[in-house]
Amino acid sequence: LFALAAIACGKRTVSTGRGLRIVSLSPAMTETLFAIQAGSFLVGRSKQCNYPPAALEIPAVSDFSEPNLEAILAQMPTLVVGPMGPATTRLEAPLRERKIDTCFKSPESIKDIEGLFGDLGVRTKRSEDADRMLRRCHESLQTTTDAVASLPKARVAMLLSTKPIYLAGPASFPGDLVSLAGATHVANVPVPYPAVSIEQLAGWDPDALIDATSMAGSSGVHAGLPGFGLLRAVREKRVIPMSDDRVLRPGPRFAEGLRVLAHALHPSALKSP
Question: Which distant-in-sequence residues (6+ apart) come within 8 Å of 257 by Cβ?
Fold first, then answer.
């Protein structure tokens, strides 16, 4: 469901500065480039790169999950960035043959996002802007974590899909936000996005469910789904709908995503973001 579990980056000569032409296949990387004042280097994006609004002015040359090599090459990039996964792995050889640099990463924690900022900052000669943006993000993050530090920690499961059931585990980016937002995971597993059965989920008996399934096109979590009536959180109407992409997108809005999630978990303790 989410090919975002590994982190890798091209190890060829780094392209920097004047003449840099970037095609981004990752919404998070597109956001990051704009956040560090490097959006002007973008000459192509994926169809899913929809933020900030200025990104929509860049030609959409490919799909997030199925990159179009010909359309990418037509933009004459010097650097192609995107998520790490089978689709981008297939791009490595043809891009290498044309001496086009790559940076394929899938951040799964705040620390990974810091690494992404640092890498893209170096490649675009925007390291100072990257550092400045990260400081602002961490100041905002600290405000939120301080606000929830002394609050009770509900045991939760964040659902990304119901057919089959996929969760955001503690080793994933959204799982990292869940922990920082003042909750604990019922699924204490090393896999970022574990697939589980309804029986497993019922056995863990979460206090609440964070329902992020609508962002994958699902109709949401409800008692009518097979087996979901077994869940105490469903019976007691402790299902928290979550449709804000900042909670799932590991980019420069991670502190905003944390506040969105923390407010959803502790609405009386934090103002709406």
Answer: 177, 244, 246, 247, 248, 249
- Two structure tokens written together for 185: 């995971």
User: Which residue, chain included where needed, has tokens 């899938």?
Assistant: 106
Q: What is the pLDDT of residue 169?
A: 96
pLDDT digits (tens, 9 = 90+) for 143-167: 999 999 999 999 999 999 999 999 9
- Pairing mode of beta strands 165-167, 183-185: unpaired
DSSP code for 52: S
- For 91-116, the pLDDT digits (tens) are 999 999 999 999 999 999 999 999 99
CA distances (Å), 17 to each of 22, 27, 45, 91, in order?
11, 22, 19, 23
Q: Are 129 and 121 in contact (CB under 8 A)?
A: yes
Task: Say which residues have a Cβ less than 8 Å from residue 266's Cβ, sequence separation at least 6.
Answer: 147, 148, 151, 181, 182
Q: CB of 265 within 8 A of CB of 156?
A: yes
- Give the distance from CA 92 to its chain's centroid: 22
DSSP 217: T
Angle between helices 127-148 and 173-180 (to 10 degrees): 50
